[in-house]
Amino acid sequence: MALENDIVDELALRLDTAELNAAPIAKITDDYPEMDWHDAYAVQDALRARKEAAGVTIAGLKMGLTSYAKMKQMGVEDPVYGFLTDYGRVQEGGDMSCARLIHPKVEAEIAFVLKQDLIGPGVRMEDVLAATDHVLPAVEIIDSRYENFRFDLKSVVADNTSAARFVAGTTTRPVEGLDLAAVTVEIVKNGEVVASGTGDAVLGNSAESVAMLANLLGVRGIPLKAGTFILAGAITEAIAVAPGDHIEARYSELGAVTMRFT
Ligand code: 0L1
Ligand code: MG
């Protein structure tokens, strides 16, 4: 690691404050260009510890930058991961206030809930499918804490991969007989289709993304536990939203997820 512990803690405070006040900041690598990948996850871990100390419950995990197109655009070879919070969960069909967000965007994903632990490294897609209790449709609302979404990858990891809110659908189903790569989704904004995609956009199959999460955690000696809610990564591009917008993500096979921004 290139950063001292007190700097890691100060950066976590900076990011937490930006989120809680919905007040964007400059990307942290402007001040600490020497920051390495261990530092980036150390800041994310410190952010998570701050939130837990303040009474926040971790509601799940997420994968980010899971499409080959976005990885290439960002100049990375591996996706990244972050955590979800209890206060980030919005009920299906619910409202969420833009006043508490900076510049929210929505992206359609497939979520997994496991029935068995997965312990990397060496986890394969088949292991994920066997360990999955059910999948469900979900929309992630990302909201970078950086001004104008201007960031680099290490800053994004530190910023908990832009995680902000999420909405899970109410229809769950087992993976048996479901071709996750072929699931299609459309994002409908105020009655108009604004984005669409197919499940294979996520590393070929969203279960592959969950395997990668288990393996990334495994390198750090952390198991992916049964019962964990996991957002596997965006099938569609991210769509900006503003007060008054109604969003519906319509999936083949999995139903729909709706929400309104106020
Ligand atoms: O969930 C995601 O794929 C977002 C990763 C962070 C990059 C961004 O904010 O666009
Ligand atoms: Mg996402």
Structure summarized in a few sentences:
This protein is of the alpha+beta class and 262 residues long.
Describe the overall structure.
The protein is built from six helices and 13 strands. The radius of gyration is 17 Å and the shape is globular. The N and C termini lie far apart (42 Å). By secondary structure, the chain is an alpha+beta fold. It has a single domain, classed as Fumarylacetoacetase-like, C-terminal domain (Fumarylacetoacetate hydrolase, domain 2, Alpha-Beta Complex), CATH 3.90.850. α1 crosses α2 and α4 (125-131) crosses α6 (206-219). The chain has helices spanning 5-21, 37-53, 68-74, 125-131, 153-158, 206-219; strands at 58-64, 80-85, 89-90, 95-96, 105-114, 132-142, 163-168, 184-189, 192-198, 229-234, 239-240, 246-251, 255-261. The strands form two sheets. Strands 1, 2, 3, 5, 6, 7, 10 and 11 form an eight-stranded mixed beta sheet that branches. Hexanedioic acid binds at residues 64-65, 140, 142, 144, 156, 161-162, 234, 238.
Summarize this structure as a short list of keywords or feature phrases.
262 residues; 13 strands; eight-stranded mixed sheet; binds magnesium ion; single chain; binds hexanedioic acid; five-stranded mixed sheet; Fumarylacetoacetate hydrolase, domain 2; alpha+beta; globular
